[in-house]
From TrEMBL:
GO biological process, one term: gamma-aminobutyric acid catabolic process
Domain Aldehyde dehydrogenase: from-to ranges: 19-469
GO molecular function, one term: succinate-semialdehyde dehydrogenase (NAD+) activity
Active site, renumbered: E249
ATP-binding keyword on record: no
One protein family per Pfam: Aldedh
Enzyme Commission number(s) of this protein: 1.2.1.20
Protein family (similarity comment): Belongs to the aldehyde dehydrogenase family.
Record-linked InterPro entries: Ald_DH/histidinol_DH, Ald_DH_C, Ald_DH_CS_CYS, Ald_DH_CS_GLU, Ald_DH_N, Aldehyde_DH_dom, Aldehyde_DH_Superfamily, Succ_semiAld_DH
Any coiled-coil regions, as ranges: none
Lineage: Bacteria, Pseudomonadati, Pseudomonadota, Gammaproteobacteria, Oceanospirillales
Keyword Transcription: no
Organism, scientific name: Parendozoicomonas haliclonae
Protein name from the UniProt record: Glutarate-semialdehyde dehydrogenase DavD
Key words, A-Z: Oxidoreductase
């Protein structure tokens, strides 16, 4: 990690103690090191410093902020390989995926550097002859963020870049399981010229403590969170007394649909990418597979054969496609979920064998029914339950039968059906003949209990801007 500045990273690591957090490689169990944690008082101090730094930052022109963000983008891409290796060590995903995440995360920095100069207001036709009406856009203020372990770099840049571009300051709690990647990418931000008080990381032994401080603070005017729906509900409750603006990117239960007119080979390829990327630990992963009766056998034969080729192991091995899950509790939950589904009447047709350490074998379940627990829960692991359907109407009802509404996928070559189904699916994002659809140029977010707001695209910077209306009177 020479180009990231090893000395800086080593300065973050410390001797173990009561106020430190250990970081472990999930593939090997190796201790990577310890980092210091903050007290509640120190987190509150970080918020105060961020407010002060934001007062200066928002006075800069949009172009000045954009130039700093562009330098950050270039530093991240210059250090892509080192950042990816660090991410694989602490998170477990295959190295190729980690490199892809670095590029994906950097793309948001580049995009919002450009969007900083496009945060425009409007002129409004006056309702009387002696008045002129217009709106301007101003930064929200101090932003608090809580990011997950499954994308430890991209989830920070996807939030921090638009906040900084808009003129806000940013205080972020990275996931306790994967803080090193967060510290590394933020160090590069400092090297790019972003003031240290403006962009801060805070961490505590108990994640709930940081959330409580961010929610209760009257200085923090916006909270952005990516994580489970359960935690999102708690944060929304705790933000209510201060009426904060919120962006919530919460849980998903994505249906993956293969119609009778689909290209089966393309559908299998999309299924592999959507389901088993990051060991199935993404909010937009295909969660339940609906296959039309007429192509069920053909799809299953090819799907099982394709999954049989997936290699499981340490992400630093270039031949590995599926790495470990993040922690023991995640593996235990997946094992219980598969066991319960089999008890309810399904069959394991691929995988499901016990593995050492934190590895979970890619698994396919057949004879799954809509009422089973695995259909209603977010799996968050390399387990694929497969169901049958016989009509478009039946499929839409089954696919929408969930509290979630983040992502959905379907394969069809009938343009009429494509429009009907795309409009009928109650999801914020729909992949049509495509298993991976996230990009910085398109809005990312869900409906129902999958969240509030959008990240990325032109909508992303609006989440960090307030619209102020100005009325000029007395114009003769």
């Amino acid at each position: 990690m020479d180009r990231i500045n090893n000395k800086t990273l080593l300065s973050i690591l410390c001797a173990p103690g009561d106020n430190t957090l250990s970081v472990v490689n999930p593939a090997t169990g190796e201790l990577l090191g310890h980092i210091p944690t903050q007290t509640e008082a120190e987190i509150e101090q970080a918020i105060s410093l961020a407010e002060e730094a934001g007062n200066s930052w928002k006075q800069k022109t949009a172009k000045e902020r954009a130039l700093v963000l562009q330098r950050w983008y270039r530093l991240v891409m210059d250090n892509q390989n080192d950042l990816a290796r660090l991410m694989t060590l602490e998170q477990g995903k295959p190295l190729a995926e980690a490199k892809g995440e670095v590029a994906y995360g950097a793309s948001f920095i580049e995009w919002f550097a450009e969007e900083a100069k496009r945060a425009c207001g409007d002129t409004i036709p006056g309702h009387t002859g002696d008045r002129r009406l217009l709106t301007i856009k101003q930064p929200v203020g101090v932003v608090g963020a809580i990011t997950p372990w499954n994308f430890p770099l991209a989830m920070i840049t996807r939030k921090a870049a638009p906040a900084l571009a808009a003129g806000c300051s940013f205080v972020c709690k990275p996931a306790n399981q994967t803080p090193l990647t967060a510290y590394a990418v933020v160090e590069l931000a400092y090297q790019a010229g972003i003031p240290k008080d403006l962009l801060q990381l805070v961490i505590h032994q108990s994640p709930e403590v940081v959330g409580r401080v961010l929610c209760a603070s009257e200085t923090v005017r916006k909270l952005s969170f990516t994580g489970s729906t359960r935690v999102g509900r708690l944060l929304a409750r705790d933000c209510a007394p201060t009426i904060k603006r919120m962006s919530l990117e919460l849980g998903g239960n994505a249906p993956f649909v293969v119609f009778d007119d689909a290209d089966i080979d393309a559908a299998v390829s999309g299924a592999l990418a959507s389901k088993f990327r990051n060991a199935g630990q993404t909010c937009v992963c295909a969660n339940r597979f609906y296959i039309h009766d007429d192509v069920y056998d053909a799809f299953m034969d090819k799907f099982i054969a394709a999954v049989d080729q997936l290699t499981l192991g340490n992400g630093l091995d270039e031949s590995v496609f599926v790495g470990p899950v993040i922690e023991a509790s995640a593996k235990q939950r997946l094992q219980r979920l598969v066991e319960r589904t089999v008890e309810q009447g399904s069959r394991v047709v691929k995988g499901g064998q016990p593995q050492d350490g934190l590895f979970v074998e890619p698994t396919i379940l057949a004879d799954v029914e809509q009422h089973m627990d695995i259909v209603q829960e977010e799996i968050f692991g390399p387990v694929a339950p497969v169901l049958r359907f016989s009509s478009d109407e039946q499929l839409i009802a089954m696919a929408n039968d969930t509290i979630y509404g983040l992502a959905a996928y379907f394969y069809s070559r009938d343009i009429s059906r494509i429009w009907r189904v795309a409009e009928a699916l109650d999801y914020g994002m729909v992949g049509i003949n495509e298993g991976v659809m996230s990009t910085e140029v398109a809005p990312f977010g869900g409906v129902k209990q999958s969240g509030l707001g959008r990240e990325g695209a032109r909508e992303g910077i609006e989440e960090y801007l307030e619209t102020k209306y100005l009325c000029f009177g007395g114009i003769q």
